[in-house]
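[job 0412] stage=fold_complex status=start
inputs:
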Amino acid sequence: MSTASVPLPNWITYGLMPFLNLVVAFLISGVVVWFIGESPLEAVKLLLQGALGNGEGIGFTLYYATNFIFTGLSVAVAYHAGLFNIGSEGQAYVGGLGAALASLALDHYVPWYVTMPFAVAGAAIFGAVWALIPAWLQAKRGSHIVITTIMFNFIGAALMVYLLVHVLIVPGKMAPETRVFLEGGQLPKLDWLIAMFGGKIGAAPVNMSFLIALFMCVVVWALIWRTKLGYEIRTLGASPTAAVYAGIPYVKTVIITMLISGGLAGMMALNPVLGASARLQVEFVGGAGFVGIAVSLMGRSHPIGIVLAAILFGVLYQGGDALSFDMPKITRDMIVVIQGLVVLFAGALEYMFRPAIVRVWQRFGKA
Amino acid sequence: MENLDIISILGSTIRLSIPLIFTALAGLFTERAGVFDIGLEGKMLFSAFAAAVAAFMTGSPWLGLLAGITVSVLISLIHGFASITNRGNQIVSGVAINFLASGLTAVLGQAWFSQGGRTPPLSPSARFTEIVFPYAVELRDTGFFGRFYANVISGHNILTYLAFLAVPASWWVLYRTRFGLRLRAVGENPGAVDTAGISVTWLRYRATICAGILCGCAGTYLAIAQSAGFVKDMSAGKGYIALAALIFAKWRPVPVMLACLLFGFLDAFANFMQGKNVPGIGEVPVQIFQALPYVLTCVLLAGFIGVARPPKAGGVPYVKER
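[job 0412] stage=fold_complex status=done
writing structure:
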């Protein structure tokens, strides 16, 4: 008898199983740390201290988490429709262009709160446009969205390098980046938020986009679980054939879902471009689009789960930086290892422990 | 353009195509068996690292190749375990492998050698070096064909010739052996294969092992034939280009080679054109050539230049009827 169809209570499916998968991923990471001759426990201590030990650390943690909330939401929305959007990286990259153009155009004339809506719209629209062609290819021509979004990541990277090197570069400068935005084109830092808890923000770049990210979580939750469109998206994800049979327009729903997904990915650019460095740079996304995959998988595509997972990854990124400073043998690449293990165990090997859990549950739980 | 330029471009086309050919053939085996494999990039990177480390430790390129293949096969088995045995999402598993490769090779490289994730440079005896064909030196200065013989046909390392042998070999295995027939069948209709009493699981595992061996050759080529050591993230997206080539070739061995040569040529041509002016147009941005393989693949996928139809059961885990 297979155990795949045995129903389990929600707290096991959404709580215990992801937790177990995560524990395994971290245990193996610990083994890697031990293998290269450092103490895993000491490493965890340094990592947590670096990420949460002071106001600046928390500020950096939240800054990274902001990126991951956006990209995590982006992956999750597409995932609800059964689409695996692997192109958040490219969509965020191109979204940066939209955000930067708004800032470049307006920063001389108006304060940041006037620029912000334009920048948000610019980032979302450019990100959505970058998801449009893969969406159309999937919906109309049946080309696999995974492949096309991977291709669009590379095309986007080439496009942005071209623009930054040949078009947007400051004349006479060597670095391929736009000019620094004036204050009217930047998003303000959230120093008051950190100060509220008695910390000092220091150099931490956590900014207004963190609040935008949280707001988008609410929007996505309402969209997916409280609107007709969300219902159609989820139906499509559960069974495309049933959805089409029930009269849900396949082409339209796929395209709209991907536009939303791409828009959310594009908005991620607000955080590094308008919030942290105040200019558009090469490679500013830095893999956040791919972290979004891990975040979405870990958060089970639910906004609350995504916020928690994003903060966890924020801790890993900021703590990892601090750790590589204290333990030079453990480089920042260790985070990528942990990320890979999380994706492997929380994603691909999601159901590895299910048969065992079902047996235990049937034995002891039901009574 | 002068002949010399064409010949040097063709020479570097060959050099740049070899890792693509190995990797795309690897993808051919798994995808024809119904297992999507976007972890090709990661397998190539893992094997490049293993090959460089082993060649550095032992001084033997052959042991490097062995290590590269072994590690790549082990990683393939992880992918197999996740996507065949556990029926997990094959794409997610591939993504995980790419992350793991990028991270682990850098962490271990730094921990072992403390050179920023690199391995120490290899001595020529620990590498696969150029094989000079008979009379290549003498013919080098004797007109177009002499130069072609000396620079394009001769002067590559053993893995290059192995890659070109792997193409007909793959074709033969896939189309002329019982294993190949079953492998292709399992990618189209695993249910039928199962009904015939043949294990879908074992067939798919064998396909991923074949892919592991080929990716191992690709990584080894990168680390100890083309370069003299491992450099962090040295696969640099070649796994994805190979994936694009595989689709471009519509999952067939000989077109796979041609697509890889085309993409290699684009790369070589881009390098050659860098900083040069085209009369009437000016400098052509190198990014156009970089993006071209991906754009072409999307155009192909859209069905504008023929239809790329993937194996029918690709990406779907097989569940035996209960």
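[job 0412] summary: The CA atoms of residues 361 and 367 of chain A lie 9 Å apart.
[job 0412] exit 0
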